[in-house]
Amino acid sequence: MGAVLGDVLGLAAGVAVSPLPIIAIIIVLATPRGRFNGLLFAAGWLLGLSALGGVMLVIGSQDSATDHGQPADWVGALKLALGVALVLLAVRQWRHRPADVSQAQLPQWMAAIDRFTPVKIFLLALLLSAGNLKNAPLTIAAGASISASGLPVGHQIAALAIFVVVASIGLLTPLGVFLIMGERARNMLGNWKDWAARHNTAVMAVLFFVFGLKLLGDGIDILSS
User: Fold this and answer.
1) What is the DSSP letter of 135?
2) Domain locations along the chain
3) Tell me: the pLDDT tens digits for 25-71?
4) DSSP per-residue string spanning 60-109
5) Any idea what the Cα angle at residue 31 is, between residues 28 and 34, rounded to 5°?
6) What pLDDT, on a 0 to 100 scale, did the predictor assign at position 65?
7) How many helices (H) and strands (E) does the chain have?
């Protein structure tokens, strides 16, 4: 199990460093029912990652390894495709980064979060976890790696749970600070939000590129074995 954790924890760290979801939960925490909405958002996030990873475990359990114990070719092809996609997204993000970070703008939908119903907040968290252009490929790759490990089902589920927890640290940190400090945390969280907003594009470009190269390398290694 140690080997598969070594493979997926890096991917989990990539998911954890997600500026937009962190900004979103900070905005959610500033709503009138911030505590409830924040917990609801975190629940949606955790469910989204768990569901996407679980789907990959089910798919991978059908044909995850060769007779020699190596991951099946489809796992390598999947990682190769995801790696190419992330590298291309990195190039696109970098080319569209603002010349002046002080002029960086958040997506328009973020301005409406304070008017979201609890259902919309939950669905937003699901989308930002399982439908995010960075998080979804990394979670899919992690699920494929776990399913290809040959571990017993119980160990695979435990590995996925560890992935989800580590991948959620970036999101759960603002929630934890708010739950502990209450209103005193608003200025601190506001500063975190401003920094993330200014550097979101550059951070995402670098993460896309780094993890895209990692998945490319993993895919090539599997297909050439």
Assistant:
1) H
2) 2-224
3) 999 998 888 899 999 999 999 999 999 999 999 887 765 555 455 67
4) HTTS-B-TTSPBPHHHHHHHHHHHHHHHHHHHHHHHTS-SSGGG----GG
5) 70
6) 54
7) 9, 0
